[in-house]
Amino acid sequence: MYPKSMIDLRKYTKIDLRRYTKVAFAALLSALLLVSCKSVKTAVQGGNAMRADSEELLEAVIRNTPAFDSFSSQLRLTIPLKKGEYTLNGTLKMQRDQLIRISLLLPIIRTEAARIEISPENILVIDRMNKRYVSVPLSGLRELLHTEVDFPMLQSFFSNAIFQPGKYHLTRKDYSSFQVRSHGDNNMQLLGNSHEFVYSFLASIETGRLLSSSIEPHSSSFRLQWEYTGFVPVGQTMFPSEMTVIAGNKNDPGRTILELSRLSVDEQTLTPTSIPPRYEQIRLSDVLKMLEDL
After folding, report:
1. pLDDT the model gives residue 270
2. For the whole model, what pTM was predicted?
3. Using a CB cutoff of 8 Å and minimum separation of 24, what contacts does 120-123 make?
4. Rounded to the nearest 5°, which phi and psi values hold at 169?
5. Which of 95, 117, 187, 289 is paired with 15 by a 20 to 30 Å CA distance?
6. 108-121 pLDDT, tens per residue?
7. Domains and their CATH numbers in the chain
8. Which residue from 222, 225, 190 is spatially nearest to 205, judged by alpha carbons?
């Protein structure tokens, strides 16, 4: 007996397969599109009274940032759609500073149905079942959405790491750009500010572990929050086995859950995907229309 959220191969139809591959687009693009609203510039409030605590905590969190050249795990992805949650199985793989890849697999036979691949230059979404793809330059996406979305930021979300827009690695010189606020008895919130966004991080004072990262435009109408739980040892580091992505309007956000298992580091080398010659290229606007019908 299959869970209702999963697809039973015995009942596959062409429509089922098409719907299955459509939801592959939603996981990434919905998170990016939530920040497409116009910005209204504001300022992050706070002083320097807690600067020393901020630097000490930042150092601890950076020391605890998962360290790997490559990462691989099994993935169970649950996406909110209009008619309820939809669950897909697949893999999550990363090559540090080069590629992030999500592959979604058909049940039982484990054939790849769809792939999302992010590089510093490009976002590629491949629909294996219908032999089509969309390729969007990351720089073009920033211009389209009026955001500061970049590869270091996306990599940090997937890697449980603090970030600043446009920077792959933080140094001590960057510490002064963060402000700190107490958050309950055991946590502290680190705040940063850029032209488009306020970005913040919640960290445990006791463990120095990053518990959540969030971005919101200065208009404050939308929010993207990435929460980390279930930390497990992987190689010489710790990594969250569950990530919850809360995205959308603050009053009614969507919630996507990434459950990771069989985690491993430094056991692979990823290379960019080559598009088969018979695959049809479609436009980003076509994908956005698909998302409206899900």
Report:
1. 92
2. 0.82
3. 120/150, 120/151, 123/28
4. -140, 140
5. 117
6. 777 888 888 999 99
7. 14-293 (2.50.20.10)
8. 190
